[in-house]
Design a protein that fits this description.
Layout: H1 2-11, H2 17-112, H3 117-141, H4 149-167
Helix pairs in contact: 1-2
């Protein structure tokens, strides 16, 4: 509107200034009325527009939440699988390291002449077998073995010690 009024003003002689000012006033009034109309329409339809925007926002929010939860579930699954894989690898490595350590300690102890648990078990089995053989020999011959002198002295001390405690 203003462009039209300005174009008319530049093309006309100076005597028609009143027409120009009237044209500017008319344009201003039309702009004002258009603004009032827009305001009135916004008031009338504003609630409807607001409700429509809220519905669109809710729809978008539910889609976004669904996508986020699916992504989180996939990431959680992948992370869990990776943790299991790493645990299996670390467990095997730890077992190998433990075995290497045990082997080295066993070799070092055998070089020093220290008996291992296996050696003690074997010796214990041999002593048991020898003890069984001696007991069977005693039963077969019927002869009781002679006690060494040190064992006799210990037995005598125990007997006198028991007698003393009984007197008290």
């Amino acid at each position: 509107m203003l462009k039209k009024a300005k174009a008319e003003a530049t093309g006309k002689p100076a005597g028609e200034g009143k027409d120009l000012s009237q044209s500017v006033l008319d344009s201003s009034r039309q702009i004002w009325l258009a603004g009032l109309g827009a305001f009135s329409r916004a008031q009338a339809e504003g609630t409807k527009v607001f409700e429509t925007l809220v519905k669109q926002g809710e729809t978008l929010e539910s889609k976004t939440r669904k996508a986020a939860s699916e992504t989180a579930a996939m990431a959680r699954g992948a992370a869990t699988a990776k943790v299991r894989e790493v645990q299996k690898g670390v467990g095997g490595t730890w077992d190998k390291l433990e075995q290497v350590f045990e082997d080295r300690v066993e070799r070092a102890l055998s070089k020093l002449g220290v008996y291992t648990q296996n050696d003690v078990v074997r010796l214990s089995q041999r002593v048991d077998a020898l003890s069984d053989a001696v007991n069977e020999l005693i039963k077969a011959t019927g002869v009781a073995p002679k006690r060494p002198a040190a064992a006799k002295k210990r037995a005598a001390r125990k007997a006198t010690g028991k007698a003393r405690t009984a007197k008290k």
